[in-house]
Amino acid sequence: MFDLTGRVAVVTGGNGGIGLGMAIGLADAGASIVVAARNPDKSAEAVSTIEKRGGQAMAVATDVADKVAVDAMMAATLGQFGRLDILVNNAGVDAGGGAADITPDEWALVLAVNITGAHYCCQAAYPAMRAGGSGKIINIGSMMSLFGHGFAPAYAASKGAIVQYTKAIACGWAADNIQANAVLPGWIDTDLTRGLRDAVPELDGMVVSRTPAGVWGQPADLAGIAVFLASSASDFVTGAAIPVDGGYAAQG
C-alpha cells in the first residue's frame, strides 16, 4: 500500500530541510526524485544523499516564482522519466518584519515563491498527471496557516492561502483522480527556523513550552506523512490540511 516503486516525484526546495526529509522518505519508499531548487551545489548534495541510500534522483535548477523555469523543470522531468506521479510544493521563503515595516518588494517575493510558485508547479504538473490517470499533490503549509504571528505577516498570508488553494484544486481535479492535500509542519529544526530563532530570541522557549512533545521536530519527521499522501493508502484523502507538529496545534 505504501510502495512507491516506479513512481516519479518532484520536490521543490528538496535540497534541504523539510523538502529533503520528504524527498528521502519518498525515495526510500521507491520513488524516483526530482530535486527542484535554486542552489545547484545543495541540490547535488541532496541527490548524492538519496543515491547513497540506494535511491534514484536528479536535480533541476528551478526558481518556482518563474513560470518559464517551472515549465522547463517539468519538461526535464518528463524527458528523463516519462511520467509524473507526485508533486511536493515545499519551496518557500520569508522576508521582512511586521506588517507596518515590510516593503512592497519583500511582500511580493514571499507571495511569489510561497503561493504563486506552488500554483505554477501544480498547473505545470496537471497535464502529466491527468494523462497518467492519477496524481498526488502535497502542498506545504505551516502552523501559521492556523495561528497568527506578528513577526511574519507575509509568510502567514501565503501559508493560509496554501490551505485554501489546496482545497480548491482537490475539488477541481478530483474527477481526474488527483488528490491534493496540505501538510502543516510544526516548528521544525531547519536553516529557516534557526534564522528566525536568532531574530526572535524568545521563540525557542515558546515553542518548547507549547509543544506537548517538548522538542523541535526534525526534517525526517515529515517523511512518513509524505509517503502516506503520495501512496495509494491516501486515495480517499483529499483537500485535507494535516498538522505534523508534535501536538503544538492541540495545546490550548
What does this structure look like?
By secondary structure, this protein is α/β, with parallel strands linked by helices. It has a single domain, classed as 3-Layer(aba) Sandwich (Rossmann fold), CATH 3.40.50. 45% of the residues lie in helices and 15% in strands. It contains eight helices and seven strands; from the N terminus they run E-H-E-H-E-H-E-H-E-H-E-H-H-H-E. The chain has helices at 17-28, 40-52, 67-81, 104-132, 153-172, 191-199, 203-210, 223-230; strands at residues 8-12, 32-37, 56-61, 86-89, 135-140, 178-185, 241-244. It has a seven-stranded parallel sheet with strand order 3-2-1-4-5-6-7, with helices on both faces. It is globular, with a radius of gyration of 17 Å. 49% of the residues are buried.
For this structure, what is the CATH homologous superfamily? NAD(P)-binding Rossmann-like Domain
Task: Round the mean pLDDT to the nearest integer and report it.
Answer: 96
The assigned structural class equals: alpha/beta
Order of helices and strands: EHEHEHEHEHEHHHE
Largest sheet: 7 strands, parallel
Per the principal axes of the C-alpha atoms, what is the gross shape?
Answer: globular
CATH topology: Rossmann fold
Write down the CATH class.
Alpha Beta
What is the share of helical residues?
40-55%
Distance between the termini: 35 Å
The main sheet orders its strands as 3-2-1-4-5-6-7
Return residue spans where pLDDT drops below 50 for at least 5 consecutive residues. Answer: none
Total domain units:
1
CATH architecture: 3-Layer(aba) Sandwich
Helix tally? Answer: 8
Our Rg estimate from Cα atoms comes to 17 Å
The number of strands is 7
